[in-house]
Predict the structure of 6-phosphogluconolactonase.
Amino acid sequence: MIEQFLIGTYTKKASKGIYKVTLDTAQEKITNVELAIPSQKPAYLQVGQDDRIYAIKQVDDKGGVASYSLSDDNAKMLSDVLAAGAPPAYVGVDNKRHLLFSANYHTAKIDVFKINEDGTLTQTDSVLHEGATGPEPEQEAPHVHYADLTPDNRLVVCDLGMDLVVVYDVSDDGKLTAVSRYKCEDGFGTRHIAFHPNGNYAYLLGELSSKLEVLKYNSNDASFKHLQTLKTIPEDWTAHNGAAAIRISNDGKFVYTSNRGENTIAVFEVQPDFTVKHIQSISTEGDFPRDFNLNQDENYLLASNQNSDNLTLYKRNPSTGKLTLLQKDVSCPEPVCVMKWK
């Protein structure tokens, strides 16, 4: 079977935009890496409906978001919304309400856009995070790093600078109203969150602390209750590490995180009480794995190493959750985002 991923990249060196990657499951290897959408700094992207792609974009000293139509070899930009300053760090899409969300690390803003029928984007709201920040040098200001949907269709936002998770109600016309705040331990560095398929638990990743928190989610008031905290790296690890990406298997049995520094994918087994147990750490065979993703049937995992310009493919055992290396040194320039495409 042939499947394809889209790879978002930085464009500081050789990269020219968003790349498409072919996975041949019969051969169990990546067979092709080629440019799909020319763009500057499309560091995060989402695959929407009707062959639409939504991505971060930078043009000279302006940053923002863009929408594209992509089918096979044909890519067309539909719209972009840019403003002076650095581009966002993350984009999330709401296909039901036809909304796009961006999280800007540098400005600490969450911006909301209406996705019009023709794929163009119209901004509907902007929320600025302000307030007390954490003790680490990287926490000199609020830093919004993630904005995406909860299982009950609210918007959950991770703020690395404030060690904070904020949940917003989202109106059909794209307006945000804050409904809850969850404060992590000081210096946690809240980066990304993944919800269990049952919608009642969440797994929160701290970049600065290299820690994983297990939370109970109450959909009645959008609140979180802390259940567990554990490291994503060995307790005796003293060199720099920044936790980056988190994914959970569709069956809710395994949580995966990436470590930039130790350069590993850490595997956690979900226990009957929804806490987790670390069961494996496997090398990404490269440097600075900013993202990774599972394929369609979740029998494979593809990781992206930003600094060493390579992708790494693993076979995944769905029963044990563990990974086995299949292929390394797949050349791809500055890869930082991995999304299933088709």
